[in-house]
Amino acid sequence: MAVSLCRPMLSRLSLCSLRAAWSSSAQRLDEADLVVIGSGPGGYVAAIKAAQLGLKTVCVEKDTRLGGTCLNVGCIPSKALLNNSHYYHMAKDDFASRGIKVDSVELDLNQMMKQKDKAVQALTSGIAALFKANKVSHVQGHGRISGRNEVTVTNGDSTTVIPARNILIATGSMVTPFPSIEIDEQQIISSTGALSLQKVPDHMILIGAGVIGVELGSVWKRLGAAVTAIEFLPHIGGVGIDMEISKLFQRVLQKQGMKFKLNTMVTGASKTDDGKVCVTLKSSKGDQQETMECDTLLVCIGRKPYTEGLGLEQHGISVDKRGCIPVNERFQTSVDSVYAIGDCIAGPMLAHKAEDEGIICVEGMLGGTPHIDYNNVPSVIYTHPVSIPQCAEPGIIAYTST
Predict the structure, then answer these.
(1) DSSP code for 114
(2) Tens of pLDDT along 333-364?
(3) d(CA 402, CA 396)
(4) What is the β-pairing status of strands 226-230 and 259-261?
């Protein structure tokens, strides 16, 4: 009898002890005027702007380096490889026709990757310097909304609680997975893996001939790979590209050696015993099927908002069918103290769009009138020549070379 009476008391004591232990282990910071979750182009620009306007600002980043996808595994490293692969292509295949003789041109892929990493490091460390100069506090770890005015950050065994008058979600986007195809970043890769291959593949197949596909396909074509792009749409360049530019753009890339299979869908992919990847294709206009083999398969069918694990639904913030967070004209979610910008809301997933939204959002918090004209958001595909599928002025078609 005595034992059975003690059990509930012991359970209550154990629960109290656990709660006390958690409270004592969690570090609680002073209240911030603004906590920004994410340090990509939208997040770090918003954080710096907020600090410049006098707000006590904290930026939370889950990765070890600031800058988000754009600086670490997106815009910056891809442009470094595009630039350097163009130099290699010019030296190997074009200099002689221009009267420049080079005895021997060899690719040092390891050194090219080191130069790319150096460029990334310089820019990400530059953000850290800007944070310090503008007095933006940086907390590393996974940020989660734990209250309408609170963010909890976990980093391994440590927990930090940050009270905040306002919270800004700037978590960006992530690679859209392809159903039934598992990415290993070795043979079947995403855009992240395509930025750090250890050798040039003999044949690379791209699932998708949108912006990411043609940019990264251009890199590896210049470096010596045979590249074939499989595209479900009847044109390249993705949804929304001007059709006249798309046709001209495709002809230019075909002259450079890239191959395209349009109106074609990928139904599956598997690794073979001889180290290849077998890709199964089907015409989008009929039942005609075929298979192709490659050394490397690049899955580049787009990106989706990164909104998982943020504690949104627990606090009444829903997402739409595409995973985007609905916001009003002031970038407020359904919780008025929580805002969202960039790739995790509707609109084009572009760094400069996120940057402008970050500035306008912060100014709006302080009483400014937010306004952004989404008809005037330019978009560029960085190949050679450069394609400008959407210009700032509607109706203008531009095609330029670097």
Answers:
(1) H
(2) 999 999 999 999 999 999 999 999 999 999 99
(3) 19
(4) parallel
Q: What span, in angstroms and rounded, lies between the C-alpha atoms of 159 and 89? A: 50
* Alpha carbons 203 and 283: distance in angstroms, whole number: 21
Query: What contacts 308, CB < 8 A, 6 or more positions away?
Result: none
Query: Which residues on neighbouring strands pair with residue 297, listed in sequence order?
Result: 188, 205
State the amino acid at position 87 in one-letter form: Y
Rounded distance between C-alpha atoms, residue 249 and residue 241, angstroms: 11
Q: Which of 66-70, 274-278, 384-388 has the lowest mean pLDDT?
A: 384-388
Q: Are 250 and 214 in contact (CB under 8 A)?
A: no
Residue closest to 78 by CA, chosen among 214, 229, 251: 214
Summarize pLDDT for 11-55 with one digit per residue, the tens. Answer: 444 444 444 444 446 899 999 999 999 999 999 999 999 999 999
The Cα 380–Cα 302 span in angstroms is: 16
> Which pair of structure tokens corresponds to residue 386?
């450069």
Task: Identify the helix (H) or strand (E) that includes residue 319.
Answer: none
**Alpha carbon separation from 10 to 5, 6, 13, 21 (Å, rounded):** 9, 6, 5, 16
Output the pTM of the full model. Answer: 0.89
Residues 6+ apart with CB under 8 A from 275: 187, 295
H or E, element range at 76: helix 75-89
Contacts of 211 (CB under 8 A, 6+ apart): 237, 238, 379, 381
Instruction: Supply 240's token pair.
Output: 């929304």
Q: Is the peptide bond before 385 cis (omega within 30 degrees of 0)?
A: yes
